[in-house]
Amino acid sequence: MEKLIGLKKIKTAVFISGTGSNFKNLIKFSKIKKTPITIDLVISNTNKAKGLRYASQFNIEKKIFNFQNIKISEKNILKLLKKRNIKFICLAGFMRILSYSFIKKFNGKIINIHPSLLPKYKGLNTHQRAITNKEKFAGCTIHYVTAKLDSGKIILQKKIRIAPNDTSASLAKKILKEEHNLYPAAIMKIF
Length: 191
Fold this sequence. Notes:
Blueprint: E1 10-16, H1 21-30, E2 37-44, H2 52-57, E3 61-64, H3 70-83, E4 88-91, H4 100-105, E5 110-114, H5 126-132, E6 137-144, E7 154-161, H6 168-190
Parallel strand pairs: 1-2, 1-4, 2-3, 4-5
Antiparallel strand pairs: 5-6, 6-7
Helix pairs in contact: 1-6
């Protein structure tokens, strides 16, 4: 990806579906002096995403697309991204799979955070699957988005030990803390 030229920051959109803790963390990261990005837009597939409150709190434009018709939603999102001059997308708990044509139009400029040590445990219920399989380690991965679920080139990973008494919930909590450090580090690495 192109290196940062002068002080021009990259206009970024964050896609969310849930609580938005990574979104809030990315907003904080975007406010520090040396950050390469600004967060100009948040997109959600549901108006029930709790994370949308951070958009209001930090005065960031928010848009909701219901994805009942994926083609129409994606077409409208792409129009909006172009209109807002968005050059980079961070998926942060976005629970929709983007189509190949959408990803192609944003080639190499979409990244995602996933709560496992990819390529292990793609998809959902990652923590429980790791515990059930008696893994010694779990973690999180930042990767480029491709048309294949959780399969893009890995940017950064953070590994943590699974404690004998860890539950799916306790492991999720530990990993989320690591996600908040990893996402900004991955963005710094890219730019």
